[in-house]
Structure formats: structure tokens, C-alpha cells
Amino acid sequence: MNPANVLLAFAWAILLAVGMPTNTNAGEGHDHGAAPSAAVEQVLPVVIATSETFELVGRLHADEMSILIDRIGTNEPVMGGKLTVDFNGRSAVAEFHNDHGDYSLTDAAILKQLREAGNKALTFTLIVGNESDLLAGEMDIHDSEASATVAHGRTWIAYATWAGAAVLGLLLFAAAFQRLGAARKARLGGVA
């Protein structure tokens, strides 16, 4: 068999294998339901503020800003202090939650302004026992289209498209190779 015909047959076999539908009918009780959706990671805006004594990390959630504070030297969490957040001329107390070990800012006016796009400068006043400290940090909020989610971005359709293009390229190559062989045969007078 001519090598060009083998290559052409192989390319057609790949094209048929890729293009064949793979749907199968499951029997009663064996339906696995809809396929799980792709994992999407929520990107939360973050503010980080440090001083010589304390480190603060705040994450902006849908209904609050959750703030964790620890000591720089020992990484020991700072529990039960009083934390005041200042932003855009407004002050609000972030309540401490014993169950989570974090401080929660729930002031609706501040949260609304923090969600708007732009660079936000925040000031935190922390009082723990006899210690007090002033921490400053910035939170950069991007447009919702740019930072709302991070996903894989490729589906099986994209991979199938590339596979189809590769198979089509192989078919074109095989057809050209076969035509060149036929032209050569005709030039030589059909001698085997």
C-alpha cells in the first residue's frame, strides 16, 4: 500500500474518532446528573498594614471587612483589642469576634465606598491593653470585570477546535503528498 494512502487513511480515522459523538444512555438509577461547574476562585481585595509591633491583614468580603492582627516578632494573634478604622473622613469600630479571632468592620457606608474602583488609603488605630498603635495601608480595587473571578478559561470546545485544525492540516498534507506522488507517476510513465 502506498505510504500516502496509509497516511490519508490514518488522518481520516483520527477525524472520525474525534468527531464521533460520545453520548451514552445510562440505565435507570445510573444517571450522574449534570457535570460539576468549573472551579472559580473569588478574588478578595486585601489591605496590609504593618508597624514595628503589629501586622494587619484585611480582606473585603461581601458583607464585611475581616481583619486579622498579629504581633510582628512572635506572630501571636492579637485578641480582644479595640480597632478603629478611618477611611475618607469617617471612623468606625471593628468589633472583635472570639469565635473567629478576627475583627469585623460592618459599617455600610465605609464598605460601600471601599467597593468602588480605585486606590483606597485606610488608617487603623489599635488599642490592646496598655499598648496602642497607628497602622496605615492601601487597598487597590479594580473594575469588577478585571478582578471578580479567576478561572481556567479553556473548555473542551477550545481543545476540540485545535484538534480539528490539526487533523485538517494532516489531511491537507496527505492530499498534497498523494497528488505529488500521482504527478510523479504520470511523469515517469506509470512505471512501477
Description:
The protein is of the alpha+beta class and about 190 residues long. The protein has two domains: about 45-145, Immunoglobulin-like (Sandwich), CATH 2.60.40; about 155-190. Helix content is about 30%, strand content about 35%. The chain has an eight-stranded antiparallel beta sheet, covered by helices on one side. A two-stranded antiparallel sheet has the order 1-10. A hairpin with a 3-residue loop joins strand 2 and strand 3 (about 55-60). Helix 1 (about 5-20) packs antiparallel against helix 4 (about 155-185). The radius of gyration is 32 Å and the shape is rod-shaped. Mean pLDDT is about 80; it is low at about 145-150.
Strand order of the largest sheet: 2-3-4-7-6-5-8-9
Overall outline: rod-shaped
> What is the CATH architecture assignment of the largest domain?
Sandwich
> Main β-sheet: number of strands, strand sense, barrel status?
8 strands, antiparallel
Number of strands: 10
| CATH fold node name of the largest domain | Immunoglobulin-like
Total domain units = 2
* CATH homology superfamily of the largest domain: Periplasmic metal-binding protein Tp34-type
Uncertain parts: 145-152
Assign the structural class, choosing from mainly alpha, mainly beta, alpha/beta, alpha+beta, or little secondary structure: alpha+beta
Number of helices: 4
What's the alpha carbon Rg, rounded to whole Å?
32 Å
What percent of the residues sit in helical stretches (DSSP H or I)? 25-40%
